[in-house]
Amino acid sequence: MRGRFITFEGGEGAGKSTQVARLTETLRSQGIDVVRTREPGGSTGAEQIRDLVLNGAAERWSPMTETLLMYAARADHLERTIRPALAAGRWVLCDRFADSSRAYQGAGGGVDAAFIEQMDAAVVGADQPDLTLIFDLPVEIGLARALGRGDASEVRFESKGQAFHQRLREGFAAIAAAHPNRCRVVDAQGDPDVVFARVQAAIQPLLTAVAA
Ligand SMILES: Nc1ncnc2c1ncn2[C@@H]1O[C@H](COP(=O)(O)OP(=O)(O)OP(=O)(O)O)[C@@H](O)[C@H]1O
Ligand SMILES: [Mg+2]
Fold first, then answer.
1. Which atom of ligand 1 is nearest to the CA of 157?
2. Per residue in 128-140, pLDDT tens?
3. Parallel, antiparallel or unpaired: strands 5-10 and 91-95
């Protein structure tokens, strides 16, 4: 049986990486074979593209160039990591995926949504996530959390300013509304235990489907 594909989305500092780690641990303790991965990245070549995209000056790449780089990385990630894992029956938990392109380069950067959907159809095709958790949080709280990490690497998008991040939040909300079967909005406020309880409730239908 094909594995399940769950993606974690949302703005800077929303708690995606924290919750991916927790869900990975919990599912493994239940005997599920989990591959935890991330975007941009998740394969050797895609991690090299990650370094290009997430570091350097905010205006280093135009939103169009970013879109092409992100989908190049995504193609490699799908070919070498995600598709083989799902085919082997493993569950894939991915920290960001295509909705981040829709939100960051589309809603945030102004790249034509129809162009992104054409690229998505060609690169991702039928391998859409079974479930996408969209972590939602006021922009200032997310940026404060991200800054609080005290890590000055990979901050290219963090440095883009408040208006950009507000467009991101609205972009993610619009994606959730447009794909109600695939997406669940998770309130990312509250302490990590409280947020994790929301994550577990959201993935419950996938676990029930496996047991049936
Ligand atoms: N529910 C929470 N409440 C308070 N702080 C949190 C919570 N979840 C995570 N954090 C902290 O906030 C910071 C950002 O969390 P995390 O790295 O998980 O976010 P992220 O969504 O992966 O961010 P990015 O988009 O930058 O990758 C970390 O220092 C983390 O420990
Ligand atoms: Mg993260």
1. 26
2. 999 999 999 999 9
3. parallel
